[in-house]
Design goal:
Helix 5 runs antiparallel to helix 6. The protein has a six-stranded mixed beta sheet with strand order 3-4-5-2-1-7. It has a two-stranded parallel sheet with strand order 6-8. About 35% of the residues lie in helices and about 25% in strands. The protein has about 200 residues and is α/β, with parallel strands linked by helices.
Length: about 200
């Protein structure tokens, strides 16, 4: 699937209008930036399974030292007043990421990856930018894991709200079994973490 096909297929879907409008703004900014060596859409939009609460998943490869520049460029395409919750972090000092939940319960996450950071894109993905065929050096034939494969409480309290938000999306889709299974795993992981750091209450 080409990126133009994503825009064509989903632009006319009322349930994904907001996500596509944001994706168009971000992709145009990345395409015009000399600091962006490559970028791709992954997740449900790349799979063709997106819906009203699907987030935009982006992996962006940057020139050396340009990680924060591109992160800021992407943030400039987003209206701050629409952000409900924001999470940030780094894969390493040169490779930042952000996860944003908006007031209408749409969301976006973008990972900016420096040349020295080890990260391979798994299938499926859709190319946005690919200067000098850079994506080919970062491709894998492996199939990407789904949200259902998430490790509960992997990032501790820092991304707990994001995990609960994912459960809320599953509930919206009627996948109660997945939610209950994940919440059981989450409770066990939190309890184990508290016992390990000695903070559990007897």
């Amino acid at each position: 699937m080409r990126f133009a096909d994503i825009l064509t297929d989903w632009r006319g879907n009322p349930s994904t209008t907001r996500q596509i409008a944001l994706l168009e703004r971000i992709s145009a900014a990345l395409d015009a930036s000399s600091d962006c060596t490559a970028a791709a859409v992954v997740g449900s939009f790349a799979k063709g399974t997106a819906d009203r609460v699907s987030d935009i998943d982006l992996v962006v490869f940057c020139a050396d030292g340009a990680g924060n520049v591109l992160l800021h460029l992407i943030e400039q395409q987003i209206t701050p007043s629409e952000i409900f919750l924001e999470f940030g972090g780094v894969h390493d000092p040169k490779s930042p990421y952000k996860k944003l939940i908006f007031e209408d319960l749409t969301s976006v996450e973008f990972h900016v990856i420096a040349p020295d950071t080890e990260l391979i894109i798994e299938q499926p993905f859709v190319e946005i930018v690919n200067h000098d065929h850079y994506l080919e050096s970062r491709m894998s034939s492996n199939i990407a894991p789904t949200e259902h494969d998430m490790t509960a409480y992997r990032y501790g309290d820092r991304l707990l709200a994001w995990e609960l938000f994912t459960c809320l999306k599953w509930l919206w889709r009627g996948d109660f079994k997945a939610v209950k299974r994940y919440l059981v795993d989450l409770g066990r992981a939190i309890k184990a973490s508290e016992e390990t750091d000695g903070s559990a209450v007897g």
